[in-house]
Amino acid sequence: MQNESHVLAHPPEGAGSDWTIPQNWAAYTPEEHGVWDLLFDRQARLLPGRASDAWLRGLDVLKLSKPGIPDFEELSDRLMAVTGWRVVAVPGLVPDEVFFDHLANRRFVAGNFIRRRDQLDYLQEPDVFHDVFGHVPMLADPVFADYMVAYGQGGLRALEYGSLDHLARLYWYTVEFGLVQEADGLRIYGSGIVSSHGESIFALDDPSPNRIAFDLKRVMRTRYRIDDYQQTYFIIPSFDDLLRMTVETDFAPLYAELNGLPDIAVDEIVPDDRVVTRGTQAHARGR
Length: 287
Ligand code: HBI
Ligand code: FE
Hints:
This protein has 287 residues and is of the alpha/beta class. It is 46% helix and 10% strand. It binds 7,8-dihydrobiopterin and fe (iii) ion.
């Protein structure tokens, strides 16, 4: 998850110009591995029947159920064999162009630190649990892996057009908080949801949020919140459709059009929406 104010200004001591650092796996303490195991067990129990097939398959293929914080070298070797991606360590949020350049080259940047035991349910910066448990299983899916590359390439172009705010919403409402319609029902694929115990229940079961069919232009007009559960989730029909909708779109004219259109509020429903669930917004109002 991202928040401008948390982005570091310079590569830290010992980091290359690509901002990567050694994961330093041997330095994790038993307490830190224990926090991973606690988070892992709680989510692994909850997610069958909630997470998408692709995410569940990724968890299995990558053998993430092995106890303790994963070693990025070992994880990268498994991931490389299926989709050509690697996982590299960074100290926290990195600048946008650095982030996109890594994605475009099939490198996923992951925080190497883990939250403390008293922060199990909330933290602002992406830690190793969010980045690895949340994001990496989806990178074992060949179609989603290609979508992430396309996003990195698109991000580099969006920076040139000055349209990153619009494109960032696409990442937010797909990669971080996306839902997918599967034959057996609605499933989670967004890493921000699968790595959150509360939101894994809320996103699918709570009457509060809107659930709306994904539409690229609509999503790119929609604001988002970084400090609580989402008030609207967007549902894709499949990962093939998501990849196709994005690679077949010419973003330059779309950005030009978006610059002339007002933003859509986090809880707003607009006339063209195909609404699957009209939310009560009780959670947001009761806050
Ligand atoms: N850095 N480590 C890290 N992780 C992110 O998810 C991330 C980032 N820097 C920028 C960024 N995300 C955003 O630019 C995009 O998600 C739009
Ligand atoms: Fe994330």
